[in-house]
């Protein structure tokens, strides 16, 4: 469905993406994560055909999306702050979605206006950040596009609306499986939705793993400093905290039964690292801290 091969892209003389490779052929929900400035937005715009790579090839559904009339037939990209016309009302935005997406479900979209408490006659410029995010999500999910890209879809949504977002997304996906890319800085919020995760760092794909694998990455070990120092000499330490004679370290190791038994046998405490903390540490400029 998506194939990106050795893509390079620069703004003026600034390299944004380089040696960028990604293949995703399954109809699954994929999380897209990266720090600010790593190239996530550029990657999404390239997929949507808004930009042309300097080098390399991009294929969606077997064709190059740049300036191609078939792109809108297969892909829907809702940006974080989508550029709706300032004179549009909510119902005009839905008409826009219907016009550009051949599989757009108008009845479903109108139903979702009620779910997210959106007035179809309200001007889009008067929507709160959360309500605009909801409108963008409605258009994206109702598009039923083969490839749907949602950029920061939960921005501004309160907890109640985020629960509705999760429910609607999963129900729609189960009814019509397709490739959905969810770009978010809030990885803990979307990880339960995703089957795979793509991490972009330094302008390239840094990690591309199943979410099940990603959830097991990273462990915290804590105990006596001397014991921790002896054990961690041969392991990558991502973060460390010292408290007198005690020490706590995050290791780039999976949270497995072997590590649990090892910790117990050495009188150490062990717990899994949160995925968010693990990714932050892996993408620090100092990727490794050796003790």
Automatic annotation (TrEMBL):
<dbReference type="InterPro" id="IPR027417">
    <property type="entry name" value="P-loop_NTPase"/>
</dbReference>
<dbReference type="InterPro" id="IPR003593">
    <property type="entry name" value="AAA+_ATPase"/>
</dbReference>
<dbReference type="Pfam" id="PF00005">
    <property type="entry name" value="ABC_tran"/>
</dbReference>
<dbReference type="InterPro" id="IPR003439">
    <property type="entry name" value="ABC_transporter-like_ATP-bd"/>
</dbReference>
<feature type="domain" description="ABC transporter">
    <location>
        <begin position="2"/>
        <end position="227"/>
    </location>
</feature>
<keyword id="KW-0067">ATP-binding</keyword>
<dbReference type="GO" id="GO:0005524">
    <property type="term" value="F:ATP binding"/>
</dbReference>
<dbReference type="GO" id="GO:0016887">
    <property type="term" value="F:ATP hydrolysis activity"/>
</dbReference>
<keyword id="KW-0547">Nucleotide-binding</keyword>
<dbReference type="InterPro" id="IPR017871">
    <property type="entry name" value="ABC_transporter-like_CS"/>
</dbReference>
<protein>
    <submittedName>
        <fullName>Multidrug ABC transporter ATP-binding protein</fullName>
    </submittedName>
</protein>
């Amino acid at each position: 469905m998506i194939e990106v091969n050795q893509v390079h892209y620069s703004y003026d003389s600034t390299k944004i993406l380089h040696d960028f490779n990604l293949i995703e052929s399954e109809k699954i929900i994929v999380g897209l994560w990266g720090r600010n400035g790593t190239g996530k937005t550029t990657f999404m715009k390239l997929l949507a055909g808004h930009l042309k790579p300097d080098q390399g090839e991009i294929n969606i559904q077997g064709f190059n999306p740049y300036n191609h009339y078939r792109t809108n037939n297969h892909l829907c990209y809702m940006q974080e702050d989508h550029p709706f016309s300032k004179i549009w009302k909510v119902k005009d935005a839905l008409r826009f979605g219907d016009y550009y997406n051949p599989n757009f479900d108008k009845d479903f979209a109108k139903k979702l206006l009620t779910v997210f408490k959106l007035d179809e006659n309200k001007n889009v410029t008067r929507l709160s950040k959360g309500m605009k995010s909801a409108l963008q999500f409605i258009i994206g999910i109702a598009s039923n596009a083969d490839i749907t890209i949602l950029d920061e879809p939960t921005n501004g949504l309160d907890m109640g609306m985020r629960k509705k977002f999760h429910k609607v997304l999963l129900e729609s996906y189960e009814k019509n499986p397709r490739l959905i890319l969810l770009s978010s800085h809030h990885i803990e919020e979307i990880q339960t939705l995703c089957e795979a995760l793509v991490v972009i760092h330094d302008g390239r794909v840094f990690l591309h793993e199943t979410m099940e694998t990603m959830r097991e990455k990273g462990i915290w070990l804590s105990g006596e400093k001397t014991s921790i120092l002896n054990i961690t000499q041969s392991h990558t330490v991502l973060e460390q905290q010292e408290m007198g004679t005690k020490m706590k370290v995050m290791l780039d190791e999976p949270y497995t039964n072997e590590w649990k038994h090892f910790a117990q046998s050495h009188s150490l405490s062990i717990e899994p690292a949160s995925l968010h903390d693990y990714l932050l540490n892996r993408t620090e400029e100092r990727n490794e801290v050796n003790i």
